[in-house]
Design goal:
CATH superfamily of the largest domain: Response regulator
CATH topology of the largest domain: Rossmann fold
Number of helices: 10
CATH architecture of the largest domain: 3-Layer(aba) Sandwich
Low-confidence stretches: none
Mean pLDDT: 91
Strand order of the largest sheet: 2-1-3-6-7
Structural class: alpha/beta
CATH class of the largest domain: Alpha Beta
Strand content: 5-15%
Number of domains: 2
Shape: globular
Distance between the termini: 47 Å
Length: 214
């Protein structure tokens, strides 16, 4: 198949990594490229294979998942990274957002949820609860690079609703427009904010001062 989601698993706990690989390999629309157990291995594998999605552990023997994410996405911004971690420390999640992660999955979740996260990340969905989003985003560093200065009023409306954690369908229902129209607005948002996922778009908008939290 040419439309398979190509996935790299980065985790130094081999038993956990193998369980993830087994679950992903059973899915017809997913191709597992391999397992990397260190930052160095992850960067090399990502540079060689250019995966669509990387499932990234936070704590690696030679560095953090956040730093590894930043390095991988610096080389290939199209790669979506989902942080898979046993930690729920807010500072770790902020580091992950700053590095460009598309979302988070905790290790106590069912394997099926990890599979679902891969599919969601591959199409740019934000994998984070609205309550967590509202807690973390105000703490992001400000950058003010001028991204998003050309957003239309409607695009800002869509962005505000995405920042509340709404799905495309929920945005469509709230604004009484079609899901297709919402997808077009989201694509415009990603382009204008130089983002590759909804979470990255919202994070950039917060850094740029387009979205303000109390």
């Amino acid at each position: 198949m040419t439309d398979q989601i190509r996935v790299l698993v980065v985790d130094d706990h081999l038993m956990f990594a193998q369980a993830i690989v087994k679950a992903l390999s059973d899915e017809a629309d997913i191709e597992v490229l391999g397992i990397a157990g260190t930052t160095a291995e992850a960067r090399a594998a990502a540079a060689e294979h250019r995966p669509d999605v990387v499932l990234m552990d936070y704590e690696l023997p030679d560095g953090t998942g956040a730093a590894t994410t930043a390095a991988i996405r610096s080389n290939d911004p199209e790669t979506k990274v989902v942080m898979v971690t046993s930690f729920d420390d807010e500072q770790i999640l902020i580091e992950a957002i700053e590095a460009g992660c598309a979302g988070f999955v905790t290790k106590h979740k069912a394997i099926e949820e990890v599979v679902a996260a891969v599919r969601a990340a591959s199409i740019g969905e934000a994998l984070i609860s609205p309550s967590m989003l509202a807690r973390l985003l105000p703490r992001l560093n400000r950058s003010y690079r001028g991204f998003g200065s050309d957003l239309t009023p409607r695009e800002k409306e869509v962005l505000d609703l995405i920042a509340l954690g709404l799905s495309n369908q929920a945005v469509a229902e709230r604004l009484v427009i079609s899901a297709h129209t919402v997808r077009n607005h989201v694509q415009n948002l990603l382009t204008k904010l130089h983002a590759h996922s909804k979470l990255e778009a919202v994070a950039t908008a917060v850094r740029e001062g387009i979205i303000r939290y109390p």
